[in-house]
């Protein structure tokens, strides 16, 4: 039996002498350190949207973990995609360990930990959506900031260190500035731009020094460097531009409140910092009031307890809640001029002057009491809409102290019972309602069956929302037990805060064709010396019902238990004391019997503790899973497009006689050590991982377990092909880099190519015998046979001459053989998914 002769001892070691320790430190540590420092400096821009400095500590820890992970893995020559995945894993461990308490061994993710993390991120997005910058640095916000900047750190580290393209990181860092600049109403602090610019300049300087030290090992410009190698940094920058623009668009789509009136979801108003209120209600919301901030100081009300209205909502979206209409607000009239009479105000009632001093109020809305007649101290850019009863402007801004001349007159029960609503007196939008669950309509009809006029019907619905009927005021809604949020609240959960109570009553009134809307504003506040103090915790929602010549009349169905609720005279029992509007206590009015449900109404079913298939029902707003899936999809498309583009360039270069390898995706010059081209060589594998992630997130929207099973199945199916591709990439890189092992790598790759095609060649065969079998079995054409002869010649010289140098003809000859194999003996799909070269190696 003929065996391969042993290789002679090496004659000399062509490896360059080790670099001095200082140069080694600069080359291996300084670059990732500069990348991390640039990320932290760019993250300081978040001071414009997140209060305090606690978040900076989390950011620094995340960046240090990402940088150290990359430094450690690159020191052992770990492939770039594996380094990136490891950095993501380390970031995940940190997030799970810090922001959840359900991780396996505290830091490892599991279904429970991911579920809790989903809730945390949902709370963060809700706080962003409903809060005004700078938002409080709550745990959900800290978690979101840590994840976002951690991912930025991974991307910057990859571009600056692995791809050696620090200039491309400028686009990524610019996106970090774009997010707070888009959300904040003030100019970002000047020093954060100075820090970012200095850090980016330092990153470029570090890379420039590193390139200068390696100049002797590089081709000088114009001395043979291939166009493909020069185009690779351009491709990296182009990809970074696309990803940066897409990421900026996705992230800045997460808006804050105080949109322009009628601007819909997409319109953001500018202005300055402060607090405002959110122009929508949510049937499945959670009330997170955060810290208690003083908003208004009110003088002139005396002992009266009135609701302060900011704006009204007239559009109901099933299973979501109430919102502003999708059309622009009416033109309105200047608010600094005499105002047109509000509906129901005939001008005969006494006027009251109320002084309102905003303290931390910033919004497009100027809250008012009752029926406003005149406003003083108001700038010309404020307008009054008679239909909605709102005072608004086109740009969110701090509001100066103002005075309101208003009528606070309240009608009597008898007046409301005889009020006749003419069809042309009120806009049809106030009775418009999409089809509701039949159970809600049935309940509404049962509650109001004995009533003969709109006031008594509205009062009957108002009386239904009491503790006697099982309703509880709480800052958290009951777990979802029904697919329809409104039905779930009315018949099962019965727990929530003002948004749920007001939303439900407004819908029930429209079921009866009674004009109604939801008002957003504030409760009465608390006495404080010569004024009443209204804080952020007084934010409230209630219902306004239209009664013809009496105008819009307030009904507050929320059973508040802290004395903040207001019960007007027309809703009190006939034997209750007369006088100004009183407040409710203990979750019910002065006389509890006044809000008992009408007799004959069946007791609604109690909430099911575990209604299968519904307990996990979530609001149909896209959460973090949808956003993450969208980002993964965009990245997968970008990686796929980049891989196809670079592969086509490699094929054109190869067809023109160039020295680039088609599948390796790296040119001869780049193979000498350019990390940028090494990154492009791994793009197909990165694209596959991103597609897997996108599919997993899409499946997660349907079922968490489905996503897990699908990812496990796809990962298991793709693991053999992935491992085979990783081994192939290592060999191709060695060949293109002219390493001493290039000939052996080329030969073993050709043997594995034969095995994948179902014709394994025993290792005991001589090179010439094996080459003859390879050419015969796979019908190599002339180019393939010529290339194979060159490969065998280089291999034999390597084995028998003892030299460590590699012939420059090896790489193109090797590619000629592979192209001939692909033309004349393509690998089947089974051979690609289950490569026999890998499986046979495992069996041995």
Automatic annotation (TrEMBL):
Q: Which UniProt keywords apply?
A: Membrane, Transmembrane, Transmembrane helix
Compositionally biased residues, Polar residues: 659-671
Quote the biased-composition stretches of kind Low complexity, using this chain's numbering. 576-590
Q: What InterPro entries does the record tag this protein with?
A: Bact_TGase-like, Papain-like_cys_pep_sf, TgpA-like_C, TgpA_N, Transglutaminase-like
Region Disordered, residue ranges:
564-621, 651-671
Q: Does the keyword Ligase apply?
A: no
Ranges of residues in domain Transglutaminase-like: 490-559
Q: Which domain of life is it from?
A: Bacteria
The cross-references to Pfam families, in alphabetical order and at most eight, read: DUF4129 (PF13559), TgpA_N (PF11992), Transglut_core (PF01841)
What are the TM regions of this chain, as residue ranges? 29-49, 55-73, 85-108, 137-156, 163-182, 188-206, 234-255, 624-647, 679-699, 705-723
* Gene3D superfamilies with a match to the protein in the record: 3.10.620.30
The protein's matches in PANTHER family, at most eight in alphabetical order, are given as:
PROTEIN-GLUTAMINE GAMMA-GLUTAMYLTRANSFERASE
What is this protein's record name?
DUF3488 and transglutaminase-like domain-containing protein
Source species of the chain: Amycolatopsis minnesotensis
